[in-house]
Amino acid sequence: MNVSSSSLQRPRSSSDLQGFNGVSSTFKETFTGSPWLMLLPKDGGCVLYNPKEGKKIHRELRDFPGSRILANSGYWLLLLDSGSYLVIIDVFSDKTIPLPSLESIASDTSKITRVGDRVFEKEIDDGHVYRELSSDVVRGLLWVDESGTDYVVVWFFDLPGHSYISFCKKGDTHYTDIPLFFRDAHFLDGLSYMVLGRYSLYISTSRRFVKVLDLSGPQGFFKDITEGNKPFSMLSRYQSWDSSIAVTTSGEVLLVESNPWQRDCFRVYKYDPNVELPDYACHTVLEVDSLGGEALLLDLGFTMPANDTLGIEPDSIYFTRHYRPCQLSPRDLDICVFNLVTKTLKRFPALDDMNLMDARWFLPGN
Questions:
Q1: 195 pLDDT more than 50
Q2: Is the pLDDT assigned to residue 253 strictly greater than 90?
Q3: At residue 169, does pLDDT exceed 80?
Q4: From what superkingdom does this record's organism come (predicted)?
């Protein structure tokens, strides 16, 4: 998708499936198609909800009490369990993929030590030590292919000034560190937002410069593959608005902003290649008034082709929070679909009484 400046078998009932402890791959096929919601009630468990048909499927996650869901990819969840260990699970089959412990990092510049069930320390080669790093501030991203045979996990301690993110993929025995601070390029310091798509990690820095990393290859490998090997800034004149990044099906990076006071609209931008001295400009993007007929799952940070038959609405933004920033508390839950062309919101009142802790849109079948 290239965004122009002028456009840019029915599931069984929830009563049949409450508390199910695993289902076959054939059953999964009934969930492909339209976007679903993964709902996380405050009293635990997980509820899969199809807004198109109003069906709810309850999942207890009995094997992981006290766990916290960090991310999802299709049917797969990235969990941080009560002992501060990461694991990937299939919500349908109970299949699990164990991951290296958080302190299993191969790095020449840092070392993590577990000092308690939920507390860590990280020592940097310059002598600085991050103490009392709680697993409560661990955040993550996940990508799993449809078969569940390949995956990428990214995680980090979401604290101001923390200087690394870590990743692993299938076959890795430890995590690899990615630095977030640079002595000779401070405009690349820090982290405000990330999007993970397969082996590509899109990072928006504290100063809203975007770079793209390739995480494929042998263990410990990552490479900057930003076009022209030069990070680019994504800045609008509404810098007081909440801002995220998203990636289209063609790989184009978009800036997505929402009004932090009114909560009733979004603005979407693409990079303006004609800005003079973009590294010093305060406005480097062009606003678009559509998504080129695609739809955006803001929780995942990617667009997908619209499909009227499947209920994937064109030029629409599916979101559960207007903003999920790094180093700040996320905005309150607000589960909606916003049409960028008509500037209208569609809400889901059937969810109002569920006492939710979190929710995320996902596309069954990845």
A1: yes
A2: yes
A3: yes
A4: Eukaryota
For the purposes of burial, counting CB atoms within 10 Å of the CB of 362, is it exposed (0-12), middle (13-18) or buried (19 or more)?
buried
- Read off the tokens for 64: 């992981």
Q: pLDDT digits over 8-37, tens only?
A: 322 223 333 333 333 344 434 444 568 889
Asked if 41 contacts 47 with a C-beta cutoff of 8 angstroms, the reply is: yes
Distance CA 228, CA 235 (A): 19
Three-state SS letters, the chain? CCCCCCCCCCCCCHHHHCCCCCCCHHHHHHHCCCCEEEEEECCCCEEEEECCCCEEEEECCCCCCCCEEEEEECCEEEEECCCCCEEEEECCCCCEEECCCCCCEECCCEEEEECCCCEEEEEECCCCEEEEEEHHHEEEEEEECCCCCCEEEEEEECCCCCCEEEEEECCCCCEEEEECCCCCCHHHCCCCEEEEECCEEEEECCCCEEEEEECCCCCCCCEECCHHHCCEECCCCCCCCEEEEEECCCCCEEEEEECCCCCCCEEEEEECCCCCCCCCCCCCEEEECCCCCEEEECCCCEEEECECCCCECCCEEEECCCCCCCCCCCCCCCCEEEECCCCEEEECHHHCCCCEEEEEEECCCC
| C-alpha to C-alpha distance for 22 and 12, rounded to whole angstroms | 14
Map tokens 């661990």 to a residue: 138
Q: Count the Cβ atoms, other than its own, within 10 Å of residue 274.
A: 8
The better pLDDT of the pair 240, 103 is held by: 103
